[in-house]
Amino acid sequence: MDINAIRQMFPILDQEVNGHPLVYLDSSATSQKPIQVIEAVNDYYRQDNSNVHRGVHTLGTRATDKYEGAREKVRQFINASSAAEVIFTRGTTTSINTVAYGYARANLVAGDEIVITPMEHHSNIIPWQQAAKATGATLKYIPLQEDGTISLDDVRETITKNTKVVAITHMSNVLGTINPIKQIAEIAHAKGAVILVDGAQGAPHMTVDVQDLNCDFYAFSGHKMCGPTGIGVLYGKRELLEEMEPVEFGGEMIDFVNLYDSTWKELPWKFEAGTPVIAGAIGLGAAIDFLNEVGMDNILAHDKKLAHYAMERLSELDGVSIYGPQDRGALVTFNLDDVHPHDTATVLDAEGIAVRAGHHCAQPLMKWLNVTATARASFYLYNTEEEIDHLVAGLLKTKEYFGNVFK
Amino acid sequence: MSLNNLDQLYRTVIMDHYKNPRNRGIVAGDAVTVDMNNPTCGDRIQLQLQVEDGIVKDAKYDGEGCSISMSSASMMTQAVKGKKISEALEMSHQFSDMMLGKELNTDELDFGDIEALQGVSKFPARIKCATLAWKAMEKGVREE
What we know:
Chain A is of the alpha/beta class.
């Protein structure tokens, strides 16, 4: 992997922020976009823009071909057995809500259980809280180990014959924990439950093979994997999607409309009411081409190496708490003693370094960590060890700065 | 921007309020209690106000947050104590204006240390930290 060549493809990285070269360490929030993606969206609007699946005219055909071509790219990217199983959504949140409404609320009754973990992002907690309230089902949590991982024994203990849905993140956006999805899916299936995987942090960083994982649903966003905002994917096994009712109704998703009754298009379009995010899907397709060219295995190795290096460098500093397990994905969440993470992030920003500070949409996990907020540096294929050195230097300055103003 | 520019934000007086908070605690006796948080970042404040005859007799706060939000709470409670409700609301209004870069009008009202927070206006991402305690105060006196 030639990092310099990769960095050249990301025009946004070539700038100064507050008088320093930009060090972008917030890719878990959203990744930057390579020129290929920017141009794919630009080209579409300049040359092909038209609505899909309805025009007889040439532009309509071109737009449809590109849109459906992007779907096929997604299918290959996650190794779904059919493009009918790939639904375009607004993002991970919409994908999870679609299952919470279309599957959980439709099928669950009082006494059933939904099982999640305390390391979930709010978008993989609240839809299930609401589904549990609406159906009378019980929401249960697989407890976390001290290091922020989950044990398969606890998974076996928590998932019972009453469990109907298991929803779990592929990779924690705070701890960096990568969960053993395949094994958890096996346990869930043995008890008759379906499993949804929140892949918002998984899909950008590792090879996802939904057939090998044997997950029933896999949700992810385009914007965290070099694609545009506003486009995401819900993968679902065909037999489950077939039996689910659509969540949204309107144009594009219908077969026949009568005065008092209508029928739906076949998969995947029955879940895509209204004009879809055509440019976003095309941009996501370009992002997938780009990621494939670099190679997902190379990306994971690079990201893990950076996370490992960052852990090593940060633990050399005095007064730094690092959260999460040793073996992890592309991020490090931490706090400096006696400095609030917002203040840390402000000082780093003055040095051109962009990190996230706050609760990372994971308030239950913050409670478990016994903190109100943390700072997080997250990495992607365009980041370098040198940038982590800048981060460490920035943190030293932060400590020095607050050491001085407190004097 | 160099680290020196940060001095506009982190003035000594601010860090003093952060390290040595004034009016942190619970009001003895009857008081209106307001809980407020900043959902985007997790800062939270519990503010207690004791209002008698239209005058803020006592103000205390507790909470968790960054240096800006907590020092702002400390300064705000100091400043509004002894003020009429109308004056406290006027101060809050002026504080919001200060976050937009305007000067405080200190001719008629004693703002105490609050002017030190003027530098926050140059850090748009931190304005919400500074205004949290003031929003809580506004809510409190309106409930009263």
